[in-house]
TrEMBL record, chain A:
Stretch list, region Disordered: 1-30
Species annotation: Cellulosimicrobium arenosum
Domain Thiolase N-terminal, residue spans: 35-286
Organism classification: Bacteria, Bacillati, Actinomycetota, Actinomycetes, Micrococcales
Residue span, Thiolase C-terminal domain: 298-419
Family: Belongs to the thiolase-like superfamily. Thiolase family.
One GO cellular component term noted in the UniProt record for this chain: cytoplasm
Keywords (A to Z) from UniProt: Acyltransferase, Transferase
Protein known as: Thiolase family protein
Active-site residues per Swiss-Prot or TrEMBL entry: 123, 376, 407
InterPro entries cross-referenced by the UniProt entry: Thiolase, Thiolase-like, Thiolase-like_sf_Thiolase, Thiolase_C, Thiolase_CS, Thiolase_N
Lineage: superkingdom: Bacteria
Length: 442, 728
């Protein structure tokens, strides 16, 4: 889908309207509105283990604290203007159950008038929360939305409580390895033998190094929400930093790590994302409404797409998703100046780069490092990518377009293309005819 | 559901950890509260805050309390923090608690088990030794201290916070209070000195004396408004907000203004006015409020060190006082009262889906409202004519409207209650009820008639309750086909506020009916005490005896003012004539007469009382709010020959002696008759049913410590040490 992008209109041969179009029956439909990314935050990411920082913190509390900080950062926004709270979690039971979006809205003290819902597309949960609510905004059904995700993998191990239909195996609908994400990464190495373990390890080491540099540069902490953490043994603490990164990781250090998914395999803890607890949230608004409320515009949503691939090579998903999103945006890969790609596994990033002819160490990719270093709390990660891209946009006004993309379990990929409002040729996010059309409808 | 919360639903007293029965000496190991210290890197880059969490390692059903070992751990932790502060490793110190609690105060059970004054002194000093580190840290090292009051903070718990330089509170913190003076103690871990200096001497009187007496803790918002805490933050990210605020204070971005000390004349005037009020209300019945007042009086000019020494002394004296021991006994009795003695297996209780009330008078209407509110079932109120029924329904409606108007009940709950209370003049409309309570006029034949009518329409399983205050439940049930379903359920007026229900079992009452009554009482959030079917049960028998004894003294020539003042040393909620006025002289006379018929002349004839009723003679004068209403001297005219004096006249001490002698004798009889399971059940009744003070322990600890039980009964009522300082 495309959201009111002059580039697309130009590509389709339609002239960009400079004067209001004649009022035909069709023109009286609600316009498709621009959707902008206003603010994004996340909790520090924690180790999903009994000794992790969030072992005694509820998942819904993580989300509540994250959303309250998100809103604290935008005091211009009257909270009653929030039209939706969409929250993703992969496992929606226990402290991630009870229709998260709504229950978290209540727990966070938002006005009771703010509705909410829970959403799931595994790792792309938060991304889907963003694109779904963005679509609502685009069609004019909503003005301001909060989208995010939470995953407490310590409380909810992957696949917890799942009861896969026996037909998956009986009818060979998917390969038996398709439900084990690490195994799908091994499969990707099989399919692209030139994507070697050495390249994957080098990518992993680079991710750690880029993260350490970004942290030192102050590019990570500003987006973090301090979270009070309970420990019956240690007392209350305050999580202010990611727990998982291993700065100073070297190739030598990870070369001989175990390959848990296959004897003699290639996927190790050194080139894959660790099990993680964390929450993310972002604020989206219609472009006009952002201006009306004085909300800062950090990115404009250009296009998004989801695509399916064979579940056993799940990590390939970003490739078709990105191709479709670019096509929808009327852009090519060469137009993209910054990439935020989720590093579920190094090989999955390598497959993406390989397909699009990008170098493994292309400096446009994951400037702050990625999930291999900071962790991947499944349904949360999509918004982390966006929050980081938004910060990079501000640092790189020369970049006009960027994208966030991720692979998704059971063989999917998702991609969102964004435009940088700091760029000289920025398209703008308010449509001149909106007010006229709206007035006409009233 | 946001139901109306009455005053009596709140509890100010710190939670103790006693697990054994009230009739045996308290003895248990300390449930140690640990002081967990953890470094917090301040997000704004200001440095490291040492965050201390008080945690006893148990869940929220086991409140954090402070005993000797816990205090020692806190002190050790603070000494470590102090060294680090001196070394420049930390920029701030903060104290908070495990979820829902900062700390519920001193471990009362431990305090009440102290054997010597030296040990008592040690307990006070142990608190100060730890807390003073917090209080002096900034002066010594420049590092300020913060309390993050995340939950309940009572007594010594709140005093930790008061010892810090700054305080925040969570919007959902359960209660903040210094309840010590209600428990025979003073806020002696700094509270008596710090509170008047922090919030002013007048508000300090409210915190330290008035609120404890009214059993009313502060909400988080109230505590913020009176200045006990400096900032109030929303619960969901309370600790995060507090840490951010603390960092703002450290950076000078937030400045907390402290008030000047009140001028000496103001200080003195408030102290003098309070002393006058204490003399009128407490009347020397217990030492703790006076000791607290003395400490507050000195707090303006005393050095901190001297003030804390004085607090230690006051604590030591009070811990070694019988009043304090009786208070702890009483407090534990009330806490344990939630699990009533003698109740049958709760599983035997029958379901209650519809309740009938016979009568629509004031008592019936109050009961109807309570049932509809708490049992959440339809309630049918029946009276003889539509006018009375409408009046009863009108009471329910106007009462909930008032609760809605004052914000104590939501509109929806009010609508539910009004919608679920129905009125009728047809007894047949009660046919579908599985419980019916009668609250008709106190006439045995009438009540028997009502029960007979009910039996003809109700299922044989339906439970019949009576709210009689002095008639025989056994006789009421005597002619029924199913007397086993009759239970006495005696409410006290005003029903919404009074926490006691006397549950009366006859020899025929079966366990299912009895269990139903207990289950209902629990759902009504009242405390049930099981009593045998003896006249007046517990509370009325003793209260009316007291009143009768006073009347008898006056009839014999004792001046009414003497008689009215005579029991002041007991510190009862009100003087005898004010009580008579509250109960209503007609009701008092009725019960007195009824008890005399059953129990004999110990419940004397009083021609004066008869005339008060017949001629509607006013018995008390008005008094300022909160002050006792004294007897109207003019009432003397209705007694005897209308003049005081003569050889039967008693002085105040003589009246008091007569009252205590009568009470002791009566309690001896009640125990012999098996009215209740033991002396402590009598105490529980007097505390909850008539507001007799914790310092009396109800009544039997007082009779023991003043020697009346030995003198009259030849034995103690409670074992030595249970509710008093044991003989060495």
């Amino acid at each position: 889908m495309t959201v009111a992008d002059p580039v697309t209109r130009a590509a389709a041969g339609a002239p960009a309207p400079t004067t209001p179009a004649p009022r035909t029956q069709a023109s009286r439909h609600r316009p498709v509105r621009d959707v902008v990314f206003v603010e994004g935050v996340r909790s520090p990411f924690g180790k999903a283990r009994p000794d992790g920082i969030y072992a005694q913190t509820r998942a819904d509390d993580l989300a509540v604290k994250t959303i309250r900080e998100l809103l604290r950062r935008r005091p211009e926004l009257p909270v009653e203007r929030i039209d939706e709270l969409a929250l993703a979690a992969t496992t929606q039971t226990g402290d991630q159950g009870l229709t998260l979006g709504r229950s978290v809205a209540v727990l966070a003290g938002l006005p009771k008038s703010v509705p909410g819902f829970a959403i799931d597309r595994m790792c792309a949960g938060a991304m889907t929360a963003v694109t779904t609510t963005a679509a609502n905004v685009a069609v004019g059904a909503q003005d301001v939305v909060v989208a995010g995700g939470v995953e407490h993998m310590g409380h909810h191990p992957m696949g917890e409580g799942a009861d896969p239909n026996p037909r998956f195996v009986a009818e060979k609908l998917v390969d038996s390895s398709a439900l084990v994400m690490g195994a799908t990464a091994e499969n990707l190495h099989d399919r692209y033998p030139h994507l070697t373990k050495e390249r994957a390890d080098a990518y992993g080491v680079a991710s750690q190094a880029k993260y350490a540099k970004a942290l030192a540069n102050g590019d990570v902490s500003p987006d973090l929400v301090p979270i009070a953490t309970r420990s019956t043994e240690l007392g209350w603490g305050l999580a202010t930093a990611d727990e998982l990164p291993r700065p100073g990781t070297t190739l030598d250090a990870i070369r001989d790590l175990k390959t848990p998914f296959r004897p003699g395999g290639r996927v190790t803890a050194g080139n894959a994302s660790p099990l993680t607890d964390g929450a993310t949230a972002c604020l989206l608004a219609a472009g006009d409404v952002a201006d009306e409320l004085g909300l800062p515009v950090r990115m404009r949503l250009v296009a998004f797409s989801y695509a399916g691939v064979d579940p056993e090579i799940m990590g390939f998903g970003p490739v078709p998703a990105t191709e479709r999103a670019l096509e929808s945006a009327g852009l090519t890969i060469d137009d993209i100046g910054l990439f935020e790609i989720n590093e579920a596994f190094a090989v999955q990033v390598l497959a993406f780069c390989d397909h699009f002819g990008l170098a493994d160490d292309d400096e446009r990719i994951n400037q702050y490092g990625g999930a291999i270093a900071m962790g991947h709390p499944l349904a949360s990660s999509g918004v982390r990518l966006m929050t980081q891209l938004a910060r990079q946009f501000a640092q790189h006004p020369e970049v006009r377009y960027g994208l966030t993309t991720m692979c998704v379990g059971l063989g999917m990929g998702g991609t969102v293309v964004w435009e940088n409002p700091h760029h000289a040729d920025y398209s703008g996010h308010t449509s001149a005819d909106t007010s006229t059309a709206t007035d006409g409808e009233n | 559901m946001s139901e109306n919360t009455t005053k009596t639903d709140q509890t100010i007293a710190p939670v103790t950890t006693s697990s054994d029965g009230g009739d045996s000496a308290p003895a248990h190991g300390e449930r140690v509260t640990h002081s967990l210290v953890r470094d917090v890197v301040l997000p704004g880059g200001t440095g490291t805050l040492a965050l201390i969490t008080l945690d006893n390692g148990l869940d929220h059903t086991k409140p954090t309390t402070l005993g000797p070992r816990g205090l020692a751990e806190l002190r050790t932790a603070l000494e470590g923090v102090e060294r680090r502060a001196a070394d420049g490793e930390i920029v701030a110190v903060a104290v908070t608690g495990k979820p829902y609690f900062l700390a519920a105060g001193a471990d009362l059970t431990q305090a009440a088990a102290v054997a010597t004054r030296d040990d008592a002194l040690g307990l006070g000093r142990a608190g100060h030794a730890a807390y003073t580190i917090l209080g002096d840290l900034r002066e010594k090292t420049g590092v300020p201290t913060f309390a993050f009051v995340n939950g309940l903070a009572l007594g010594g718990g709140l005093e930790i916070a008061l010892s810090c330089d700054y305080r925040t509170v969570a919007s959902d913190a359960g209660a903040l209070a210094l309840p010590e003076t209600g428990l025979g103690l003073v806020p002696g871990w700094g509270g008596a000195y710090l509170v008047p200096r922090l919030i002013g001497v007048e508000k300090a009187m409210d915190v330290i004396l008035t609120r404890p007496a009214a059993n009313k803790p502060f909400t988080a918002k109230e505590a913020y408004e009176i200045g006990l805490v400096d900032a109030l933050f929303d619960a969901p990210d309370y600790l995060e907000s507090s840490i951010r605020w603390a960092e703002s204070v450290l950076r000078g971005e937030v400045v907390v203004e402290r008030r000047e000390l009140d001028p000496q004349p103001v200080w003195d005037a408030v102290v003098a006015a309070t002393r006058e009020r204490l003399d009128a209300v407490v009347a020397g019945s217990r030492p703790a409020p006076y000791r607290a007042l003395d400490l507050i009086a000195a707090a303006r000019t005393a050095s901190k060190a001297d003030a804390f020494v004085a607090e230690d002394d006051a604590l030591a004296d009070l811990i070694m006082s019988d009043e304090m021991r009786a208070s702890v006994y009483a407090f534990q009795l009330v806490s344990k009262g939630k699990r009533p003695q003698g109740a049958p297996d709760a599983k035997l209780a029958r379901p209650v889906t519809r309740v009938g009330i016979v009568g629509a008078g004031l008592m019936a209407a109050q009961i109807a409202l309570l049932f509809a509110q708490r049992l959440q079932v339809p309630v049918v109120m029946r009276d003889l004519d539509a006018e009375r029924v409408d009046k009863g329904l009108g009471y329910v409606r106007s009462t909930v409207e008032k609760l809605v108007r004052t914000g104590r009940m939501s509109r929806d709950v009010a609508a539910r209650i009004v919608g679920s209370v129905h009125g009728t003049t047809e007894i047949g409309d009660l046919a579908a009820c599985d419980v019916v309570i009668e609250a008709v006029t106190e006439l045995l034949p009438l009540k028997k008639k009502v029960f007979a009518e009910l039996e003809s329409i109700l299922s044989p399983e339906a439970v019949l309750l009576t709210n009689t205050s002095a008639l025989s439940v056994t006789e009421m049930a005597a002619d029924l086909a199913h007397p086993e379903r009759v239970v006495g359920m005696h409410f006290f007026n005003p029903v919404a506020q009074m926490p006691l229900v006397e549950i009366i079992r006859t020899t025929k009452t079966d366990d299912a009916a009895l269990a139903t009554a207990f289950a209902m009482t629990k759902k009504l959030r009242k405390t049930a005490v099981l009593a045998a079917d003896r006249p007046g049960f517990v509370v009325n028998r003793l209260l009316i005896l007291l009143m009768g004894t006073i009347m008898e003294a006056v009839e014999n020539g004792t001046p009414v003012e003497f008689a009215d003042r005579a029991v002041a040393p007991l510190g009862l909620p009100m003087p005898p004539f004010a009580l008579l006025d509250l109960v209503g002289p007609a009701v008092g006379l009725h019960v007195l007469t009824s008890l005399r018929e059953d129990l004999g002349d110990r419940f004397p004839v009083s021609g004066g009382l008869q005339r008060i009723v017949d001629e509607q003679v006013p018995v008390v004068l008005d008094a300022p709010k909160g002050m006792p209403r004294p007897v109207d001297p003019a009432v003397q005219a209705v007694f005897g020959d209308g003049t005081a004096g003569g050889e039967g006249a008693l002085d105040e001490a003589g009246v008091l002696d007569a009252v205590l002698t009568a009470l002791t004798h009566e309690i001896g009889l009640m125990l012999d008759e098996g009215v209740v399971a033991g002396p402590s059940q009598i105490d529980l009744c007097m505390i909850l049913g008539s507001g007799w003070g914790f310092h009396l322990g109800g009544i039997t600890p007082y009779l023991d410590r003043t020697g009346y039980s030995n003198k009259i009964l030849g034995r103690r009522l409670l074992p030595d040490g249970v509710a008093n300082v044991p003989a060495a």
